[in-house]
Amino acid sequence: MTVRYEPLVTESLAKQVAERIRGSITDGRLKADDQLPTEEELAQQFQVSRPTIREALKRLAAQSLIRSRRGPSGGTFVNRPSQEEVRSNLTTATALLVSLGEFSIPEILEARQDLELVCVRHAAQRREESELAVMRAEIQTQEMSTVSDIDFCASDVRFHRAIADASHNPVLQFAMFTVIEALQPIENMVVFHVRQRDMIVKQHKKILTALRERKAAAAAQAVTEQMEYLRARFDEAHELRRQRISA
Questions:
Q1: Which residue range is the domain that position 33 belongs to?
Q2: Is the pLDDT at 53 greater than 70, yes or no?
Q3: In total, how many domains does the chain have?
Q4: Hey, is 130 helix, strand or coil?
Q5: Which of 58, 78, 98 is the last residue of a domain?
Q6: CB–CB of 201/129 below 8 Å?
Q7: So what's the pLDDT on residue 182?
Q8: Could you tell me if 116 and 231 lie in one domain?
């Protein structure tokens, strides 16, 4: 497919070239596996230098939007990213936004609760024994007195990932990936030293029991209980930090 581009007339040429081509990909004019014109052809279309085109293509490759292939049948092609690639990029971007102060812990907890309530309602009806087995195994890990804080937090993440998987809704699973893989560990770093492990385990057991018995309302109540507990622990951690700073 041939897409024609108008010449650029303002600054940040490489960025603009990348944005133009990216727009062609996101609006469907360029589809997965379509081949882009050569550097020389793109330079002529945009009326810029080939180094500017190379810089623009590097930007697009860094976003996993294009890929290059050498050889007689080589060239630059629109990428068909895997879910794992998209999830990895999304997790990295989300963690960066948190570090920049774009998301607060209360906002993260609120979004997590709303999404997880949807997940457990579906999971109560759709869960399979394999997903319940994962949750049971993680609870057993969390009950071990010798497990480190890092391993406990990792197990906590895996437990909630299993809840999302049990929803058997790919869109929910994808949305929860960011919350679980990028945001939940950040929550854990803030509250792990003030939360009680046995309380988390107790709440996890309630969720597991409700899902095993296919009781959606009970599962939702257990999730709500855990989120309220974590909010209280965040407030406690925040106050302790404030006191240390003012001391």
A1: 13-78
A2: yes
A3: 2
A4: helix
A5: 78
A6: no
A7: 73
A8: yes
Q: Judge whether 7 lies within some domain.
A: no
pLDDT digits (tens, 9 = 90+) for 149-188: 889 989 998 999 999 999 999 999 988 887 787 777 777 7
Q: State the DSSP code for 65.
A: S
Domain finish residue from 31, 58, 78:
78
Instruction: Verify that 117 and 194 share a domain, yes or no.
Output: yes
Q: What is the CATH number of the domain that holds 74?
A: 1.10.10.10
193, 222, 5, 11: which is closest to 113 by C-alpha? 222
**Does residue 4 belong to any structural domain of this protein?**
no
What's the token pair of residue 91? Answer: 């997790």
Whole-number Å distance between alpha carbons of 184 and 134 = 18
Report pLDDT digits (tens) over 191-242: 777 789 999 999 999 999 999 999 999 999 999 999 999 999 888 888 888 8
* CB atoms closer than 10 angstroms to residue 242: 10
One-letter amino acid for residue 31 of the chain: K
Measure the CA angle with vertex 198, ends 192 and 203; round to 5°. Answer: 95
Please tell me the pTM assigned to this model: 0.69
The per-residue pLDDT for 7 is: 64
